[in-house]
Write the C-alpha cells for this entry.
Amino acid sequence: MFSRFKNWLSRALGGQSDEAADQQGGVAVLDPPDGEAEGFDPGSTVAVEDYGQAEQVDLSPGEEEPEPPPLPTGWWDPPVEPQDDPLDRRRDVSIDGFLRDRLSGILKDPELELPRMAGVTQRALMILRNPDELDYKRLAGVVEQDATVTTEILRVANSPLYRGVNKFTQLSQVFARLGTRHLETIFVSMSVKGLAIRIGKEYRTLGEELWQRSVAAGVTASRLGELFGRDPDELFLYGLLHDIGELAILQVVHEYHKNHGRPITRSLFEQIADEWHGHIGLRLADHWNLPDPLPELIGQHHKLPEDDDPLRQYRLILQVADAAAFQLGYGGREWQRDFFNIPAVRFLGLEKTVVNCEALADLPERIEARLETL
C-alpha cells in the first residue's frame, strides 16, 4: 500500500514514471488506486500505512489558515471622533496664578493639618494587621464603641457582595465570616468615602466623583491582579488609595474657600492636584500608617517605571486602572482612547485578545456593584 501511494503521489506532483525509475535504479511504484487516477480531489485526506500505523496527511495545496474570529468590541475601543484628553483641563492658561501660588504654599507647609482617620477605624486596622494577636472578640469590642461605624460595617457586610445565606446581626458574626482581608478593605473604604463625602457645598459633587473614580480604579486593579496572578484584594486597596492625595487636597481647597471666600475652579483644583497629590498622598499614607508598599505607590505612580523597578508591575497596573476609570466615565466626563494602545497598557503586556477583552468586559457591572455596596 505504501509503495502504491508513493507511485501515485510521484505522478501527481510531476515525478518520474515507473520505467524511468527502474532504469535509474529507483524504487518502482504502482498505479494509483482504481477510480482515483481521474478527477482525484487534492483537498482530500489520504490514510498512509507506515509500520502498521495510520496518520492523516492533508494534501490541500497552498491552503491558508482560517482567519481568527473578530475581537469583541467594548468600552476599550477608540471613539469615531477624536476627543480631548481630560488632562488638558489641568493646563488651563486662564487659571489665577496668584491663587495657585497661595494654595501651593499651603500644601508645601510641613505643618499642614492632614485629614485624620477615625480613631476606632485606626485601632481596628492595627488589630487586623497583627495576625499573631488577632482576637475577633477584642476587635468587636473596639468597633462597638462607635455606633456609626458599627452600623456601617453591618450594612456593608449584609450587601450582596459579602452576605452569605443568613443576615449578620452582630459584629462577631461579621468578623468570623469575612476574615481579615475583607475587613481591612471595608474599614479602609469607609475612611476614604468619609473623606470624600464630608466635603460640603460646592465641592461635594467633585468629592463624590473622586470617590467613584477611586472605586473604579480599585475594581480595575483587582481584575488586573487576577489576570497577572496578583492578590485581587490587595490590588483593590492599592487602586482605591493610590490617588488619595487628591481627596486631601480637595479638603484644603474647601477650607481655603470657607476661610477666604475665594472659590476654586475645577480647572485650578485639577492643576493643583496634578502637581501635589503624590506628595500629599505620601504624607497622608504615613499619617494613616498604611503598610508597605502603599506609601511608595501613592507617592509615585504616574511615571512609567524602569525595567528594574521592583514595583514596576504594580505601578503599571495602577496607571492602567486610572486609564480604564477615565475611559469608563469616572473621571468627571467621558474620555475615550484606543485603550490597548496606551503606553502603560502595552508596557504591562496586556494585549488585545479575545480572552483579555472578555475578562474586562464586565468591569462596568463590577464597579457599579462595588459602589452600591460601599
The two ends are 74 Å apart (CA to CA).
